[in-house]
Design brief:
Blueprint (H helix, E strand, L loop, with lengths): L1 E5 L3 H12 L3 E5 L11 E4 L2 E4 L10 H12 L3 E5 L13 E4 L5 H7 L3 E3 L4 E7 L2 E6 L2 E8 L1 E4 L3 H10 L6 H9 L1 E2 L2 E8 L10 E6 L2 E6 H4 L6 E6 L1 H6 L5 H16 L3 E9 L4 E3 L6 E3 L4 E3 L2 H4 L3 H20 L1
Helix pairs in contact: 1-10
The chain binds flavin-adenine dinucleotide.
Length: 323
């Protein structure tokens, strides 16, 4: 069966990986230049910076199985199990990607083909499956017997609007109810190593900041580089503000806590950071429509739950084949 998966985040890639392992012809479509979605790593000069998700954890049998594969291929390695002065946080091993958080996703992507830089503008339901059309390029279009959507829910709803498509009333209402936090990220280069002790990360150094880390201590950057994640409240307050207005306070906190000067920085806005209200089921699937939906808005917070959502979606598609 020819299957198109829209979205190359962890949910889309786990789904595509399972489907291609089962022998299907799978293509993942992604608007970005690479795979990973919110598991994002950026190069700035000679530095490597994780500016989205910082680590992954594994509790379920399925995630542990994925983790074993990544460990065997040295795609991930243990980072830390506790942060100094935070006895309240669970002592569970946090894994980092070997070359940033995209490493494990890149491994999965070796088992299927990807169409990158492809913003899906419209999906068209046909008698024998689906047609997927790129924005601004009617000629770049792909067809499939089955379609899997793994976009954050707001982007999914926008896509349905552009495609003049609606699912049943209850499903649309549940999709509309999904909520994510926002996160304003500040990332950049430091003059010197930070003064943060192992693991090179601190949580909530002030109310307005959720996370601050040193990517060199983390082991992914040869040059001193940092990541700061502002809280949901701060991010919302300054979402539309220019950098000159929203960055100075964050820079001040970063320099003070890192104990060194910041020499270069930029911001990134994550409009859908972590889900706070979910769909209520790990995925949605319609055999009749040849359509499946997954992602963290279904599976829940954390990379693990997004991955499991993608895996459940693949199971649903595979059952469809066997019936
Ligand atoms: C700042 C931040 C920090 C986080 N920290 C952690 C952490 O430390 N540990 C943890 O477990 N989780 C963390 N998370 C959450 C975790 O990253 C997510 O839950 C998970 O990565 C979501 O995966 P996904 O596949 O559901 O979605 P995504 O990764 O968002 O993938 C969806 C993909 O769809 C693509 N797309 C959207 N629209 C279109 C379109 N029209 N056409 C084509 N492609 C499209 C997007 O570009 C994206 O690549 C963090 C998230 C953020 C933002």
């Amino acid at each position: 069966m020819k299957i198109l998966v829209v979205g190359a985040g962890i949910s889309g890639c786990v789904c595509a990986y399972q489907l291609s392992k089962a022998g299907h012809d799978v293509v993942v479509i992604e608007k970005g230049r690479g795979v990973g979605g919110r598991m994002a790593t950026r190069r700035v000069g000679g530095a490597r910076i994780d500016h989205g998700a910082q680590f992954l954890t594994a509790r379920s049998t399925r995630m542990l199985a994925l983790l074993e594969g990544w460990k065997t291929n040295c795609d991930v390695m243990p980072w830390y199990d506790r942060i100094p002065n935070r006895p309240d946080l669970p002592t569970r091993i946090r894994y980092r990607g070997s070359e940033g958080m995209t490493s494990p996703v890149k491994r999965l992507a070796q088992s299927f083909s990807s169409e990158l830089g492809f913003f899906v503008d419209r999906i068209v339901r046909r008698e024998d499956g689906w047609l997927v059309v790129e924005a601004g390029n009617e000629e770049r279009r792909l067809v499939a017997d089955h379609l899997v959507l793994t976009l954050p829910s707001v982007q999914m709803l926008d896509l349905f609007d552009r495609s003049s498509l609606a699912l049943d009333h209850e499903t649309m209402e549940r999709l509309r109810s999904i909520r994510h936090t926002r996160c304003l990220a500040l990332l950049g280069l430091m003059e010197d190593k930070s003064s943060l002790s192992h693991p090179g990360a601190t949580t909530h150094p002030v109310d307005q900041v959720d996370w601050l880390s040193d990517n060199q201590s983390k082991g992914i950057s040869e040059q001193p580089a940092f990541t700061l994640h502002a809280s949901d409240a701060y991010s919302r307050e300054f979402w539309e503000a220019p950098d000159e207005e929203r960055a100075p306070f964050l820079l001040e906190v970063a320099e003070e806590k890192l104990g060194t000067r910041i020499t270069q920085w930029s911001t990134h806005r994550w409009g859908f950071a972590k889900p706070v209200v979910t769909f209520g089921e790990t995925h949605w699937h319609s055999m009749e429509m040849s359509l499946t939906m997954a992602g963290d808005g279904f599976g829940g917070e954390r990379i693990e739950n997004a991955a499991l959502s993608g895996w459940d979606a693949a199971d649903a598609v595979l059952e469809r084949k066997s019936t």
